[in-house]
Specification:
mainly alpha, about 425 residues, globular, about 0% strand, 16 helices
């Protein structure tokens, strides 16, 4: 009995610290060398997850073992590189971030316990409430009440971008991405009502537009369009037609209001116009051969690959063991840090996780899984989500949500099964 109570307490604490991470990250900038509040939270999570894993793990499917072995071999690569690299400080920080970011994967080994005791609704509610804090800060930054913490050059001038108090707008926008994704999953599984879903989704979209983070805005649009289309397809033919007509009429009405407002100036839409100016003005060129492609992303990719091409065969195989420089691409960064061997292991890990979840969930769960992987792939084109512990925490938390809310044995195949809890 005491063991069950301790396991339940650990589970509550683990999900609490994951949901509370957005507040923890407001404490200051990570400098790449020392331990900050986020790093300390990561070490705490590692300890709690390890203890919970030892207490509640059950015999798992072989495919999940493949993911675990891949993670362990990646960790071994990190340790080997830590031994040989002269930049031991940076390597030690990077391996700690890897361990913290991927440690929640062990929770999937406890899926039987998680499906029975996972506080899904409370986790969602607390996460959304926590995200309101950086949302408010971002809006106050836009209003000029709170100082900007990030600036970009637009038209030859430095322009502030709402970041919610974080050093980068992407730190804010990734929270919004998971707010939108989780809202659609919970609504489709019948856990929240339409008012809650659309309130969170529209507010998150609004804040993302304020942040002017292009990739995240595009990702949220993909999530919204995908789930709305999924709902139409799964609905009955009559219901689907009604929703299409309602959607078209609403879009038409909004378009008419916007056109009238352009002439009559009843209310200001400066936030949209200003955000679009920053989004388009700071994007650089779309010419892949140009150094300013996507604000220098193309140059960074080219520089990283050229750097790796000049290394020895051994270094190409196992990588440098730490981020020599920020490559701004998840796959390229995996190659830089862990080499071709590490790149293969990451592919095996993500593939094994996908197969494991896919086998145990219903059609709604499979669709949600595809969207989640689409999110990390799109986010990884210009950023490095696999190296961000806070992103990976929410990635694994979303996997757990999908596993628990859309079990294959459930008859509610979504969307919006009649399971709304009080």
């Amino acid at each position: 009995m005491k063991e069950n109570k301790l396991s339940l307490l650990l589970l509550q604490l683990i999900m609490l610290i994951i949901a509370f991470r957005p507040i923890i990250d407001l404490q200051g900038r990570f400098d790449g060398e020392s331990l900050n509040m986020g790093g300390a939270a990561g070490l705490v999570l590692i300890a709690w997850v390890a203890l919970f894993f030892l207490m509640t793990r059950k015999k798992s499917e072989p495919v999940l073992n493949v993911a675990l072995y891949a993670m362990l071999f990646i960790a071994i690569l990190w340790l080997i590189n830590l031994w040989f690299t002269p930049a031991k400080g940076s390597a030690l920080v990077d391996i700690t971030r890897f361990a913290a970011g991927f440690s929640p994967m062990l929770l999937l080994y406890c899926s039987g316990y998680m499906e029975e005791h996972f506080p899904a609704k409370r986790f969602y509610t607390f996460y959304i409430l926590v995200c309101i804090v950086p949302m408010i800060i971002a809006f106050l930054q836009y209003l000029g009440v709170v100082e900007y913490t990030y600036f970009d050059v637009v038209g030859g001038e430095w322009v502030g971008r709402s970041s919610g108090g974080y050093i980068q707008p992407s730190s804010l926008s990734r929270l919004m991405i998971f707010s939108v994704l989780l809202s659609y999953i919970f609504y489709s599984a019948g856990q929240i009502n339409a008012l809650t879903k659309y309130s969170v989704v529209l507010l998150s979209l609004f804040i993302t537009v304020l942040s002017t983070h292009r990739t995240s805005t595009f990702i949220i649009a993909v999530i919204m369009v995908s789930f709305e289309l999924y709902a139409l397809v799964k609905d009955s033919k009559q219901g689907g037609q009604k929703k299409i007509m309602i959607g078209l009429n609403t879009a038409s009405l909004l378009g008419i209001v916007y056109l009238i407002n352009l002439r009559m100036k009843f209310f200001s839409l400066n936030f949209i116009e200003g955000s679009l100016t920053v989004m388009t003005g700071a994007v650089g060129t779309l010419d892949v051969s140009d150094d300013s492609f996507l604000r220098g992303r193309g140059y960074r990719w080219q520089r990283t690959l050229e750097y790796m091409s000049n290394l020895s065969t051994g270094e190409k195989l196992v990588g440098k063991g730490h981020e020599v420089f920020e490559s701004h691409n998840d796959i390229i960064n995996m190659y830089l840090v862990s080499g071709l061997v590490g790149l293969l292991l990451y592919f095996i890990l993500y593939t094994a996780l996908f197969v494991y979840i896919w086998r145990g969930v219903n059609p709604l769960g499979r669709f949600s899984l595809i969207i989640l992987y689409t999110v990390i792939i799109l986010f990884g084109i210009t950023l490095q989500p696999s190296t961000y512990p806070n992103f990976m925490w929410m990635f694994f938390a979303t996997l757990i949500v999908i596993k628990c809310l859309t079990k294959k044995s459930d008859k509610g195949l979504g969307p919006n099964a009649n399971l709304i809890s009080p």
